[in-house]
């Protein structure tokens, strides 16, 4: 789902831990992988068997990345636009009210720059249907409180890679990937 949401053009499937199985089993798994991705954006993606431990075919992966995937042009000047591929609640059950944190949205910035403190708008937001069956969308307005990439605390978020954005959004709206697909 994340591959389709992000509209990725270059996909590479790595079949890891091939050192643990026989060649016939690896070929059978490769066929199962091909069937699994059939009809998806990864339908024609190459499948490369690798062993991270033995460094088998790592050179092939690097060669593919360098020759087949160009570095996209990054747009830092446009209005920020981020696509959400994960959202969650970082609070633990029974958390004290004083230490509660807002929800987190994870995704990739397509263009523009986000900064801690920025006011953000998440669309379509809260979707509801009235008695007449009419659907309404209410954008969620919030503020960026923190940003992270892996274990790095960020002040700015730029296009490319994945980022986690801590917000003031009620965690009930972000838990269990409820914001996936929103921008």
UniProtKB/TrEMBL annotation:
<dbReference type="GO" id="GO:0005850">
    <property type="term" value="C:eukaryotic translation initiation factor 2 complex"/>
</dbReference>
<dbReference type="InterPro" id="IPR027417">
    <property type="entry name" value="P-loop_NTPase"/>
</dbReference>
<dbReference type="Pfam" id="PF03144">
    <property type="entry name" value="GTP_EFTU_D2"/>
</dbReference>
<dbReference type="InterPro" id="IPR050543">
    <property type="entry name" value="eIF2G"/>
</dbReference>
<dbReference type="InterPro" id="IPR044127">
    <property type="entry name" value="eIF2g_dom_2"/>
</dbReference>
<keyword id="KW-0378">Hydrolase</keyword>
<keyword id="KW-0396">Initiation factor</keyword>
<feature type="domain" description="Translation elongation factor EFTu-like">
    <location>
        <begin position="102"/>
        <end position="174"/>
    </location>
</feature>
<dbReference type="GO" id="GO:0005525">
    <property type="term" value="F:GTP binding"/>
</dbReference>
<dbReference type="InterPro" id="IPR009000">
    <property type="entry name" value="Transl_B-barrel_sf"/>
</dbReference>
<keyword id="KW-0648">Protein biosynthesis</keyword>
<keyword id="KW-0547">Nucleotide-binding</keyword>
<dbReference type="GO" id="GO:0016787">
    <property type="term" value="F:hydrolase activity"/>
</dbReference>
<protein>
    <submittedName>
        <fullName>Putative eukaryotic translation initiation factor 2 gamma subunit</fullName>
    </submittedName>
</protein>
<dbReference type="GO" id="GO:0005829">
    <property type="term" value="C:cytosol"/>
</dbReference>
<keyword id="KW-0342">GTP-binding</keyword>
<dbReference type="GO" id="GO:0003743">
    <property type="term" value="F:translation initiation factor activity"/>
</dbReference>
<dbReference type="InterPro" id="IPR004161">
    <property type="entry name" value="EFTu-like_2"/>
</dbReference>
<dbReference type="GO" id="GO:0000049">
    <property type="term" value="F:tRNA binding"/>
</dbReference>
<dbReference type="GO" id="GO:0001731">
    <property type="term" value="P:formation of translation preinitiation complex"/>
</dbReference>
